[in-house]
Amino acid sequence: MILLDKPLGLSSNHALQRVRRAFDARKAGHTGSLDPLATGLLPICLGEATKLSSYLLESDKHYRVTARLGYETTTGDAEGEMSRASDVDMPTGVALDTLLAGFVGPQQQIPPMYSALKVDGKPLYEYAREGQTIERAPRPITVHSVELVEAGDGRLTLDVAVSSGTYVRTLVEDIARAWGGCAHVAALRRTRVGPLGFERPMIDLEQIESAANEDPARLGNWLQPISSLIADWPRVRLDSEQTEAVLHGQRLRGDWEAGDTLVRLESDDGLLLGLGRCEIEGELRPKRLFARPQP
């Protein structure tokens, strides 16, 4: 896995393909796309790690977002045309802190028209480009935190932690509307995805491609172990007999906690075997296994 610092103006898929070519990997996948106008952490899984990429789509995300105040746009960011304006001043001090705190917690959010969600097999953004507005049902999200970084000169910068499926563009609009104003995203940078982004540094795409052309041996310095993708998942350590059974796809019964929980399966020497699910009936079912144990 590579912790790519996606550059501005590049789609997530374009960035993914360039990393895949640099590493000469047959398989590659990412753990949740970023808009072209967003930068920051785009974890890219290579080879066996792609077996985990879909599970990381549901991870919480952390962003630093800068909103430009005064008007909304058709896309919710700087790429769109002005759609609504307001000259209502942003609150300050305790009033602003109180307003922001009101957005923390579980809530319902209506997805924006400029999104990849599909209706009748067609992405919403295609309807939007045709001038159509489709009714969208609100979806449950959770905003874990909203922290003020800077405010003034017609801009508002926040650090936010949100659940998967949260549209930061919509969150910014809703925050401004709460004081009767308007805003859109001027800059967005993702800083964390699940357990990733705490300690390990992100790598620039230019660094990767330069190393691939000039010194391919350097590429290995930036590879992260598969286990770091699920570092915060509950672990189930198996003895040699259980490991053999799991690797043959067999379900196990044991004294681990019953529930409906995804866990990381490890051998008795600490190697990662893959993913399993502890089911309500108390069985442990292999879910996604690697071709060989991973460190």
TrEMBL record:
Residues 234-290 form the tRNA pseudouridine synthase II TruB subfamily 1 C-terminal domain. InterPro entries: PsdUridine_synth_cat_dom_sf, PsdUridine_synth_N, PUA-like_sf, PUA_sf, tRNA_psdUridine_synth_TruB, tRNA_sdUridine_synth_fam1_C, TruB_C. This is tRNA pseudouridine synthase B. One of its GO terms (biological process) is tRNA pseudouridine synthesis. It catalyses: uridine(55) in tRNA = pseudouridine(55) in tRNA. Belongs to the pseudouridine synthase TruB family. Type 1 subfamily. The active site is at residue 35. SUPFAM superfamilies: Pseudouridine synthase (SSF55120), PUA domain-like (SSF88697). It holds the Pfam family TruB_C_2. It is an enzyme of class 5 (isomerase). Gene3D superfamilies: Pseudouridine synthase (3.30.2350.10), PUA domain (2.30.130.10). Its EC number is 5.4.99.25. GO terms for molecular function: RNA binding; tRNA pseudouridine(55) synthase activity. Residues 169-229 form the tRNA pseudouridylate synthase B C-terminal domain. Residues 20-168 form the Pseudouridine synthase II N-terminal domain. Responsible for synthesis of pseudouridine from uracil-55 in the psi GC loop of transfer RNAs. Coiled coil: none annotated. Keywords: Isomerase, tRNA processing. It comes from the Bacteria. The gene is truB.
